[in-house]
Amino acid sequence: MHLYEEQFSESHDYPRVEAPSKVLIIASTGRCGSHMLGHALHETNRFGFPLEYANPANLLEWKRRLKKDELQAVMAEIKRRRTSPNGVFGIKLHYPHIKLFGGFDNVAKCFPDAYYILLSRKDLLKQAVSLSIASQTGVWIAGQKAVSDDPHYEFAHIDKCLRETILNNASWRYTLAANGCNYIEMNFDDVRHDLVRSINDIANFMGVEIDPIEIPREPVTKKQSDLRNAEWEKRFISDFNASSELLSNAGPSIIKKIEGKVKRMLSA
To answer: Which 3 state secondary structure label does DSSP give 42?
Structure first.
C-alpha cells in the first residue's frame, strides 16, 4: 500500500512529553471508518492524532525515520510527539496489528489502562466490497495515488474480505472482554450521522474536557465509495448461493480459525 505521507509530518507533532496520561485506542477493522473518526478527533485537539502508527508499512517508515528497530521504542517516541496538550494520545489498531506487538499482553504494556473504542459498521457487505476495491487500487485514503485504476470484481475475494471482517470484529470483542479492558462500542453509521454526539460520548467515556465549539460538525475526510461499490454489492448478492458448497464448508474452517486465534492469545 502507499504510505499516508501526512502521518509523518512534523507539523502534527505537539510539544514533547515524557508519556501520555491517557490513551485512546480505536479498535478497528479495514474500511470501518476509523480514518474519518481519527481525523475528526484530531480536529478537537483533545485526543492526539489517532492514526495507524502500527500499520506494517507505516511502522517500517517510522523505524527508518526515527532510526529505531524495536516497536516499543518507536511507539514510545511517537507517544512523546503525538500526545495532545491535555495529555491524551490516540492510535488506531486493526486487529491484525496485535501480532506486530507479539500479542495483546504487549499491547496492554505499551498502552496501559487504555480506553478502547470498538468501531464497526452495520453494513458489513459494503465494508467488504470497499476492502476488496481498496486492496486492488491501493487507495485506502482519499488523495492517495492509485496503484491500479481498474479493480476487478471477484466474488471469492469479497467473500474472503467479508469473513475476515466478521472474524476480526468478533476477535476484538473477545479480546477486550476477556482482558477486562475499558471499552465502548460505536457504529460508524451513527458516528457519521451525528459526529458531535459521538465525540461527546467519547469525551465523557474518557473523562476528557472538551469545548463544544472545537467539535467538527461534519466529517473532515472525503467519502470514497462510488457507483462501483453499489454495483459490486448487488452482484455479490446475486452471485451468492446459500445452498452452495461455499456455505456448507464455511462453518468448520471458521471455527478452526477462531480456535487457533484463541489458543495463540491464551499462550501469548
So the answer is: helix
Q: 17 and 87 in contact (C-beta within 8 Å)?
A: yes
pLDDT-derived band of residue 138, with 50, 70 and 90 as boundaries?
confident
Coil, helix or strand at residue 170: helix
The rounded distance, in Å, linking the Cα atoms of 263 and 268 is: 9
pLDDT at position 242: 79
Amino acid in position 28:
S
Classify residue 9 by burial, with Cβ atoms within 10 Å: 0-12, 13-18, 19+: exposed
Q: What is the rounded average pLDDT of the residues 237-256?
A: 66
Report the first-to-last Cα separation within the chain, whole angstroms: 29
Residue 144 has a pLDDT of: 56
CA angle, residues 212, 214, 219, in degrees to nearest 5: 105
The Cα–Cα gap between 40 and 26 comes to 13
Give which of 136, 132, 142 is closest to 162, Cα–Cα. 132
Q: What is the pLDDT of residue 6?
A: 86
Neighbours of 83 (CB within 10 A): 26
Helices 155-178 and 227-239: angle between axes, nearest 10 degrees:
90
pTM surpassing 0.90? no
Residue 33 burial by Cβ neighbours in a 10 Å radius (0-12, 13-18, 19+):
buried
